[in-house]
Please model this.
Amino acid sequence: MFYLIIILPLFFINFIPMIGNTISFVFGSLFSFYYNALDYMDYPMTRKMTGFRNKLRVISSQKTLSAGFGAMAFILTFIPVVNVLINPLLVVSGTSLYYKKNYSQLTK
Model:
């Protein structure tokens, strides 16, 4: 539901002549970075029974670090054959990032 709330308006913005494509591309990419960070750091937070709003707050607390991790995950999943092998590593990386960068203190 969260994904659709963001993506549907971006889809309709895409129909605005000339500038809609650019706006949709930029904000869609930024949202994908954020969503990938949320997706791969979700595993340790789910284990701690963290609610969805708290998960969003945790990911938003260190925006540049989360966006960087999400951007690399986004790019690596587009490489054929590598994307099948990289998913487990991204889960491990997200979990490691969650604990090493003190995200875990925010979920308490």
